[in-house]
Amino acid sequence: MQGYLAEKASQGVAYDLRNALFEKIERLGFGYYDRQETGQLVTRLTSDVEQIRTFAGSGVVQLASAAIMLLGTTVLLLFLDLQLALVALATVPAIFVLLLRFVQRIGPLFRGVQQALGRLNTVLQEDLSGVKTIRAYAREDYETDRYREVNDDLLGRNLETVRTFANNFPFVFFVANLGTLGIVLFGGLRVIGGTLTVGELIAFNTYLGFLLFPILTIGFLSAAFSRAGASAARVFEILDAPIEVEDKPDAVALPPVRCRVEFDGVRFRYPGDEREVLKGVSFCVEPGQTAAILGTTGSGKSTLVNLLPRFYDVTGGAVRLDGHDVRDVTLSSLRSQVGIVLQETLLFSGTVRDNIAYGRPDATLDEVEAAARAARADEFVQGLPEGYGTVVGERGIGLSGGQRQRIAIARALLVDPRLLILDDSTSAVDAETEAAIQESLDRLMREEHRTVFVIAQRVSTVRDADLILVLDEGEIAARGTHEELVRTSELYNEILGSQLEPAPAGG
User: Fold this and answer.
1) pLDDT score for 148
2) Smaller CB count within 10 Å for the chain: N or C?
3) Three-state DSSP string of 330-391
């Protein structure tokens, strides 16, 4: 019964920790992920939680049992013979000093083991995600060596913990045996002197074993405690991490917006970086307008659009929708009116319908199909073995890059956003498909009066934009329509000639 209840309790601890960790990870800001390795996070949710679970089960019960036995045996020894008890207990402080030094040394070692395991998981995760790139460049041997190097580090750290055990516990046993030797010597002299019987000495020595056993048990458990403590510290680093972007206590729901977007002296730098990515950016986009963002590499294009749904918070100035500062409204009400199609398309394991309806799980099949038609995805989806019920693999394996992007566009359109953000969202489709998608997007923008921000790589995307912003080193170097910038902006013409692709046929 004790074993069952202990295991049930430990599984409950692990269950609650996993839920709490995942819930926190879902809400941490993007700045946190910019500083953390995926492998380290996976290790904390798996291996570190398991170390805590193991100690929370058998370890806690054994520790409590050892403490009770130690206390009870001490009282019994003092009751039987005060002098012999004092001789026996004289070694106890020395044992606890040795154990304390052991715990202080082993704790950082266990933390290093978990960190090395996290690095190993990071390499594994990177290689599994990039297996095609590895094969394409024939880097299998290099990646094998890289994995072996991290694995060697993990092995070395584990062996160091083993050596720490080997270098400390023999001394603990030695001191414990000194206590037994003292009892036999001092008690034997008293037997010879006639003040103690042989039976009493044997009984006392037997009880002494009940004193040393819990001490040694506590010693062994101290290693498990140190390991669980190191894992707990890593787990609570996540649980105690501040959420950089969250609702204010007095945040209000954002009402349905016409979506007038205003950047007012916006400044931004990434957490831990002193370099400003955006430096006092100010502009205004009226409802229903399309704003194209262009700029040199590292000029802050993606950063600018990431501030609209509050993936990050500005470090100066303000971003407003219809006059509402995005920091003063709830995240759910803000993001429910924003549709985003990123350059790197992510699909989840599940059906095509589930992926398109990810933002609106209650959407009907007719609504899903309408969004797919608008994104020019309906035709190829209907050709799949089970149509919209076809299951796609992890990250959309089985679909081409262009097909994945069209599903992502359909997913964004289905939520009927008032603000649509396209981060080079047609980069993986051919020219004919890009022209068809662009035509549909243009029609949807005009008919629904959506405000659109687009980071583009093709001339056709920016030619018809109502406002083009040219960024350079975090500042707006030029703004205006295509015709105005062709006449007035040297930087725009350089980008036009060097970075943008020609307009597709029919675009």
Assistant:
1) 92
2) N
3) CHHHHHCCEEEECCCCCCCCEEHHHHHCCCCCCCCHHHHHHHHHHCCCHHHHHCCCCHHHCE
Per-residue HEC secondary structure of 273-335 comes to CCCCCEEEEEEEECCCCEEEEEECCCCCHHHHHHCCCCCCCCCEEEEEECCEEHHHECHHHHH
User: Average pLDDT in the 226-250 region?
Assistant: 85
Angle of helix 198-239 versus helix 82-89 axis, rounded to 10? 40
Contact 7, 15 (CB under 8 A): no
Q: Are 302 and 424 in contact (CB under 8 A)?
A: no
| Angle in degrees, 0-180, between the axes of helices 60-80 and 82-89, rounded to the nearest 10 | 140
Buried b (16+ CB within 10 A) or exposed e, 92-123: bebbbebbeebbeebbebbbbbbbbbbbbbbb
Helix axes 198-239, 60-80, angle to 10 degrees: 150
- β-pairing, 419-423 vs 338-341, is parallel
Question: CA torsion, points 230, 236, 238, 241, in degrees to nearest 10?
Answer: -130
Can you say how many angstroms the Cα of residue 326 is from the centroid of all Cα atoms in its chain?
25
Q: Which two tokens stand for residue 274?
A: 């002193």
What is the rounded CA–CA span in Å between residue 430 and residue 435? 9
Which region among 52-56, 429-433, 478-482 has the lowest average model confidence (pLDDT)? 429-433
Please list, in sequence order, all residues whose beta carbon lies within 8 angstroms of the beta carbon of residue 206, skipping any fewer than 6 positions away.
none
Give the distance between the most distant pair of CA atoms in the chain: 117
The predicted-structure confidence for 406-445, as pLDDT tens digits, reads as follows 888 888 888 888 888 887 655 556 666 666 666 666 665 6
Q: Is the CB of residue 219 less than 8 Å from the CB of residue 102? A: yes
User: What Å distances lie between residue 206 and 77, 84, 87, 272, CA to CA?
Assistant: 10, 13, 15, 62
pLDDT for the residue numbered 448: 62
